[in-house]
Amino acid sequence: MARILIVEDTPEVHALLTETLQAEGHEVRGARDGLEARALLAADPPGAASGPDLVVLDLMLPHVDGSVLLAEIRRAGEVPVLVLSAKDAVFTKVDMLRLGADDYVTKPFDLTELTARIEALLRRASPAASAPGPLVHGPLELDPANARATLDGTSLSLTATELRLLQLLLESPGQVFSRPRIYEAVWQEPFVGDDAAVKTHVSNLRAKLREAAPALDPIETVWGLGYRLRALPET
């Protein structure tokens, strides 16, 4: 069971999602506009014992736009966020992913696909019982079981998706990973030809690594092939 916050102003969609997720055993809380969502998140912030394990977030909300809420959620914690919106332009999807969304589903949506994506996000965000021990590559360290990463002694604030991406690269330093392979390993679903999510999350992760240690730039782009973790100096 997970605690899921649904932020959706369309009554029919809100009711459908609530009923479906409750039937699957989840605890569901709901907000019908941006101000209500902000109040719920302030009372039970991400990372708190009673905070949400996942947020389903509409973009076009009364009072506070969904993109503003997404930025606020990201500043507050690393809870997975699935954006649900009628806006289907590529630039909108990329913008939301850059702001920190973990997935993006457009309306009208297939309910089976949506719930599968929610379950996939919850699986990726939960430390697996068989999670590997700490991974170390020079000054870059990751503890998957506790979702903690540091670079050159600086703590990294990473989303669940960025942590999975970093883990994949750290498990095989120097190995080139294509975008389809990254997608299937990190998102845990078949690649269907849209690599915008991979490119955006790699860019987000790379920016955070550069901010922590500008001289290192651990992720290398291998043009035409994909990405790999470059050799780093030993500490």
Describe the SSE topology.
Blueprint: E1 3-7, H1 11-23, E2 27-31, H2 34-43, E3 54-58, H3 66-76, E4 81-85, H4 90-99, E5 103-106, H5 111-125, E6 135-137, E7 140-143, E8 148-151, E9 154-156, H6 160-171, H7 179-186, H8 196-212, E10 219-222, E11 226-229
Parallel strand pairs: 1-2, 1-3, 3-4, 4-5
Antiparallel strand pairs: 6-7, 7-8, 8-9, 10-11
Helix pairs in contact: 4-8, 6-8
Can I get a quick summary?
With 235 residues, the chain is of the alpha/beta class.
Using brief descriptors, characterize the structure shown:
Rossmann fold; single chain; alpha/beta; Arc Repressor Mutant, subunit A; globular; five-stranded parallel sheet; 235 residues; four-stranded antiparallel sheet
Please give a structural write-up.
The protein has 235 residues and is an alpha/beta fold. Helices cover 41% and strands 20% of the residues. α4 (90-99) packs parallel to α8.
The number of helical elements comes to 8
Which architecture of the largest domain per CATH? 3-Layer(aba) Sandwich
Spatial separation of the terminal alpha carbons: 41 Å
Q: How confident overall, as mean pLDDT?
A: 88
**Total tally of structural domains:** 2
- The radius of gyration is 18 Å
Q: Would you tell me which CATH topology of the largest domain applies?
A: Rossmann fold
The name of the CATH superfamily of the largest domain reads Response regulator
Beta-strand fraction estimate? 15-25%
Helicity, in percent? 40-55%
Q: Main β-sheet, in a few words? A: 5 strands, parallel
* N-to-C SSE string, H for helix and E for strand: EHEHEHEHEHEEEEHHHEE
Protein structure class: alpha/beta
